[in-house]
Amino acid sequence: MTGLKVAAAVLALLVAMVLTQLMFAPQREPAPQMTHGMPWQIEHPGPGQSRVFGLTLGGAAASTLADAQRLSPQQPKLALLAPQDESPSLEAYFESVSLGTLTGKLVLSIAASAADLEAMRGNAAKTNHLDSGIRKYALNEADRQRAEALPLAAIAFIPSASLDEAIILQRFGAPAERIRQGETLEHFLYPARGLDIVLDSKGKEVLQYVAPADFARLRAPLGK
Fold first, then answer.
1. Distance, CA of 69 to CA of 161 (rounded, Å)
2. Where are the beta strands (DSSP E) in the chain?
3. Which residues 6+ apart lie within 8 Å of 22 measured at CB?
4. Which run of H or of E encompasses 206?
5. What is the end-to-end Cα distance of the chain in Å, rounded?
6. Closest CA to 191 of 37, 56, 35, 44
7. How far apart are CA 35 and CA 156, in angstroms?
8. In angstroms, rounded to a whole number, what is the distance separating the alpha carbons of residues 189 and 218?
């Protein structure tokens, strides 16, 4: 057998082996479709609840700060914020997160009782006065660990990429209401989703999420 015939025979054998492997190889299941990750992919696991970015808002199954920390390899900045003449709030701030194909900043409001907030304020390791007039309290380590186990009350996402009216309507659909606030802000309200998109003509857009049952918290400050 000539060298050419040998090469042809070897090639034919290899082709036959590959075809045999393909015929009898186990069929792989298709990759599961992503059901969360993008800002417009909002699910409703139960009455009055919502889930976005894999985090649940509302109800006994609400996600905690510990659950949210998987969104970023960096630890969030956690602080108690006390505006003048207002009740304090507990918030966690992620400087940069990747959500689906988007990046941005993430602010989480944490549900805590008034008694817990006052105790944390009294135990604060450090206090700063911000230019806005808000007093910022840094939690001690014990209170920080307690805060990680508390449920999330709200999520605010500030995307790095700019949004406009066309993108909002394309991705989120028509809002139930549109309310202008001042000269530069317009709110796109989606109460059934627990979502308020704040479009800022001179600044960054903000997507605010709460459980649909708590949507009045976003709507009430906007007036009639």
1. 22
2. 50-52, 55-57, 77-82, 89-99, 102-110, 126-129, 135-138, 152-159, 177-181, 185-190, 195-200, 206-209
3. none
4. strand 206-209
5. 93
6. 44
7. 20
8. 9
Asked if residue 187 has pLDDT above 90, the reply is yes
Tokens for 223?
């007036």
- Express each pLDDT in 73-125 by its tens digit: 888 999 999 887 778 899 999 999 988 788 999 999 999 999 999 999 888 87
pLDDT of 36: 53
Question: What is the rounded CA–CA span in Å between residue 108 and residue 76?
Answer: 10
The token pair at 138 is: 């840094």
pLDDT digit string, tens, across residues 39-67: 999 999 999 999 999 999 999 899 999 99
Question: What's at 74, amino acid-wise?
Answer: Q
Distance CA(187)–CA(108), nearest Å, equals 20
Q: Given the structure tokens 């304020």, which residue do they identify?
A: 121
Alpha carbons 222 and 91: distance in angstroms, whole number: 22
Distances from the Cα of 89 to the Cα of 30, 41, 82, 83, 110, angstroms = 44, 27, 7, 9, 8
Type of residue numbered 142: A
Could you count the other beta carbons within 10 Å of the beta carbon of residue 47?
Answer: 10
The first and second tokens of residue 18, run together, are: 């590959």
| CA gap 68, 155 in Å, rounded | 10
β-pair partners for 177? 189
Write the CA distances from 184 to 5, 110, 203, 207, integer angstroms.
79, 29, 8, 16
Which residue shows structure tokens 């700019």? 162
